[in-house]
């Protein structure tokens, strides 16, 4: 058994612990969350290994509620005495807290779709394997003599559990492996970056990432100045992923409606329902401008997501489209959550015909600026509507300014 597997609380143990804590509660409601796991890493700089280590984590958060008053307390001690003290502390804090007008009733028992996000290859990775991965960058840089490389490899394996007084319980295990590095030429004029992340260690091609970063460092040596202006820039997948992650902090309807988001409309409210190709100052293609008098509805969003080039022949959008009905329904359902008054979804249509076309989540040279309302390139098991067929209706949904 590795350090990570020892640190991860098993489902049965987590459920028993939550049930024990719930029985200690005197509050109207109680919600318990448990986080457990292990994080290991290796860091290198100036062509040398610098640090390596691992950290075990375990935390229990207990949220007690009396009516609309609630508060939480945490502990990493699972002894009965500690759990009783933490429950009592959360209850005392809850009684002192002001009422929360947005308090929602707790969920009852739920059925969750299993998610395969845990890989033994990642959870069981050894320090020696992490070091060998780092050497894919260190060895060629040392051999070259004119390069310096620095990077970070971090691996996480953990589990989260949540349960409450109403009988709701959920448990999930997950792993992640992340690799980033920067290679610079000794003269300081060239720099190359590489990075990737996957839940499966075996899916990360460390040698290719290292080689690519070294190539970029050499190619960027002695840069030449260019005149200010508009230039087409193609972002690597990792760069697009990093940008999309930032978007989640601004996609809430409240943030938009209160003017705290790039998706806030001038004058108030959000941009749901804005016209197609209607972002002032953005260089839309003629293919999109041909739709400028139209508004996005469920059917148009569905057709756009199937194939931007079919929806608007001549568009510069490089995204090939998504032929999976459930994926598109997930994205459109997510966009609908950005509106305080979402239009009802249409009834399920007949399943669409199958297609052999692939749908990579690529970046686009005609991507909308940060002020447009664009769906993130990831699906969510909790964002999908109850049907797996593609929506087919004409009702305002969201603005998409690609």
Task: Describe the structure in brief.
The chain is an alpha+beta fold and 402 residues long. 29% of the residues lie in helices and 21% in strands.
Could you explain how this protein is built, in words?
- With 402 residues, this protein is α+β, with helices and mostly antiparallel strands.
- It folds into two domains: 3-219, PmbA/TldD fold, CATH 3.30.2290.10; 237-402, no CATH class.
- Helices cover 29% and strands 21% of the residues.
- It has twelve helices and six strands.
- Strands 3-2-1-4-5-6 form a six-stranded antiparallel beta sheet.
- The longest helix is centred in the middle third of the chain and has 18 residues, at 127-144.
- The radius of gyration is 25 Å and the shape is flat.
Oligomer, anyone? single chain
Number of separate domains: 2
CATH class of the largest domain: Alpha Beta
Total helical segments: 12
Could you say what the CATH architecture of the largest domain is? 2-Layer Sandwich
Unreliable parts: 354-402
Strand order of the largest sheet: 3-2-1-4-5-6
Count of individual beta strands: 6
The portion of residues forming beta strands comes to: 15-25%
Structural class: alpha+beta
Element layout with pairings:
Blueprint: H1 3-7, H2 11-24, E1 29-45, E2 48-66, E3 69-75, H3 80-96, H4 120-123, H5 127-144, E4 147-164, E5 169-185, E6 191-198, H6 206-219, H7 237-247, H8 253-257, H9 286-289, H10 298-306, H11 308-311, H12 325-336
Antiparallel strand pairs: 1-2, 1-4, 2-3, 4-5, 5-6
Keywords:
single chain, 402 residues, alpha+beta, PmbA/TldD fold, six-stranded antiparallel beta sheet, 12 helices, 6 strands, disordered C terminus
